[in-house]
């Protein structure tokens, strides 16, 4: 039996109307006041056992963006859905996989490059080989075989500390302040430099998918990529959601998703479209996101008279 500490239980849902200027004057400063989360620093320093094992098994990758000034993205299986390698299933289209790619600020690049390179020297590539298996005798929905080693994912009752600082489920903050120019969410993207970064990210997504899929599955694979907004303060580092044969990142009733490719087209037309923050946004959030938005409004002095946010009726 495997225990996933970040699998969320059902929660009440609230409708939100976010007025123009609220991100710029309330949410962004609120996110900026929070230290970098342990989840991100665990990836930066390689103290997260999940991140290190994912690299060694060929399921994670540091995607450079064409220059130190852009930072990088660290792609790995999303532990909310793949806490256990058995959660990765194969279909007639190939593996069904949900990936999260965390943005790494330029100030942290030397740290993450060092441990990723060290892991790469001894990389087992077990999961990479499993993803490329062309065993046509298995049923299309069969689960992938686990490697003989049981090191990758913890069982229920395992000491969480043994998983390393910043392991999935570590919702605390580090003592590291966010450096200047930190990107908390996709709504912080602005200017030609961020447009170049987004273009490099799209190319990086393509290379990552090509690596984990065999040539036969690549052409028929169904991909969806995008960003969610808003996010919990602990997750207020720009991160991409990528799904391979596993549904859509955007388009749910929550209306919190921004498709990567549509966003790129929009910023090509106007690199400062998001920086203007002139849109009224309608979306749905759970109780913890609602609490974060209220805290941001309070710190910005925008809680009075419903300025900035309006909440609709809640539902379970």
From TrEMBL:
Domain of life of the source: Eukaryota
What protein name is recorded for this chain?
Uncharacterized protein
Could you tell me which species this protein originates from?
Polarella glacialis
The organism's taxonomy opens as: Eukaryota, Sar, Alveolata, Dinophyceae, Suessiales
């Amino acid at each position: 039996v495997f225990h996933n500490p970040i699998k969320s239980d059902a929660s009440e849902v609230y409708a939100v109307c976010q007025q123009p200027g609220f991100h710029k004057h309330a949410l962004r400063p609120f996110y900026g006041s929070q230290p970098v989360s342990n989840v991100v620093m665990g990836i930066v320093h390689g103290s997260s056992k999940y991140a290190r094992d994912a690299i060694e098994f060929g399921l994670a990758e540091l995607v450079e963006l064409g220059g130190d000034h852009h930072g990088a993205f660290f792609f790995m299986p999303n532990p909310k859905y793949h806490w256990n390698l058995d959660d990765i299933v194969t279909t007639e289209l190939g593996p069904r996989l949900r990936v999260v790619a965390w943005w790494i600020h330029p100030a942290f690049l030397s740290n993450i490059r060092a441990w990723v390179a060290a892991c790469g020297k001894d990389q087992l590539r077990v999961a990479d080989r499993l993803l490329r298996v062309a065993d046509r005798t298995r049923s299309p929905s069969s689960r992938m075989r686990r490697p003989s080693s049981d090191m990758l994912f913890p069982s229920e009752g395992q000491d969480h500390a043994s998983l390393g600082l910043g392991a999935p489920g570590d919702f605390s903050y580090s003592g590291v302040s966010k450096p200047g120019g930190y990107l908390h969410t996709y709504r912080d993207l602005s200017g030609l430099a961020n447009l170049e970064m987004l273009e490099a990210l799209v190319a990086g997504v393509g290379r990552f998918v090509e690596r984990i899929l065999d040539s036969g599955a690549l052409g028929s694979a169904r991909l969806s990529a995008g960003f969610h907004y808003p996010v919990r303060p602990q997750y207020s580092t720009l991160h991409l959601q990528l799904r391979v044969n596993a549904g859509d990142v955007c388009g749910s009733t929550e209306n919190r998703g921004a498709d990567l490719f549509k966003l790129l087209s929009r910023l090509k037309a106007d690199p400062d479209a998001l920086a203007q923050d002139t849109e009224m946004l309608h979306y749905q959030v759970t109780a913890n996101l609602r609490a974060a938005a209220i805290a941001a409004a309070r710190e910005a002095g925008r809680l009075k008279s419903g300025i900035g946010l309006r909440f609709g009726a809640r539902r379970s």
